[in-house]
Design brief:
The protein is an alpha+beta fold. The protein has helices at about 20-30, 45-50, 70-80, 95-115, 135-145, 160-175, 180-190, 195-210, and strands spanning about 10, 30-35, 60, 65-70.
Length: about 210
């Protein structure tokens, strides 16, 4: 089935970062179609590799454009559907804070968490060579983003909360981030959102079908 240019199609797997993209889609509130791909088979098949040569999910297609990478998907959808109020306007001073933490989570945060999980953190004497510096520096900086709250932009929930928040929720769940009070309180606020619950239910149902 070929999508129409205006249709949003989500390519995902319920046991993947595709959960972030689905949550963002539920926050946006626009209709979309889901294509579930399997690891090692359809995800690496020619049809999907034509969409994302990395053979990874998630990806979305919309208006004839393919968007991959969770941070990019969140930012794209927020800008494509401004009526959802999930990104500050370009002339809003909050735009800088929004972009800062989106890119921080996609860069230093993910790199530091991955390096620590693999036992590959840069030694102290070479910390200046890596974008994250040290794991503790990253965690301390992240805490400043969510301490004042309730959201990264204060009273305004945004796509930055979807993306950064997903990293924190997973970090607490899989114990790749320390259980600081600010992180736990922020994660609780995120998971109580209606759209987050809807997204979880949809992906959990797909997982149940696969088991």
């Amino acid at each position: 089935m070929n999508p129409s240019p205006q249709e949003i199609v989500l390519y995902t797997n319920p046991m993947s970062r595709g959960r972030i993209a689905r949550w963002m889609l539920e926050e946006v509130g626009q209709p979309y179609r889901t294509v579930v791909l399997d690891y090692g088979t359809t995800m690496k098949g020619d049809d999907y590799l034509a969409i994302n040569p990395m053979g990874k999910v998630p990806a979305i297609t919309h208006r004839g454009v393919t968007v991959t990478e969770c941070a990019a998907i969140c930012a794209y959808l927020a800008d494509a559907f401004p009526q959802a109020g999930l990104a500050p306007a370009f002339d809003d001073p909050g735009r800088g804070t929004y972009l800062r933490w989106m890119f921080f989570a996609a860069g230093p945060l993910e790199a530091a968490v991955t390096a620590k999980s693999l036992g590959l953190l840069a030694p102290t004497e070479k910390s200046g060579m890596v974008g994250y510096g040290s794991f503790d520096q990253v965690v301390d900086a992240l805490e400043t983003a969510v301490t004042k709250g309730p959201w990264i932009l204060g009273d305004n929930f945004s796509a930055a909360d979807v993306y950064v928040g997903s990293q924190i929720v997973w970090g607490l769940q899989f114990k790749t981030l320390p259980e600081r009070d600010a992180f736990k309180a922020y994660a609780d606020r995120l998971q109580s959102r209606e759209a987050a619950g809807q997204a979880r239910a949809l992906d959990d149902a797909l997982m149940a079908l696969a088991s």
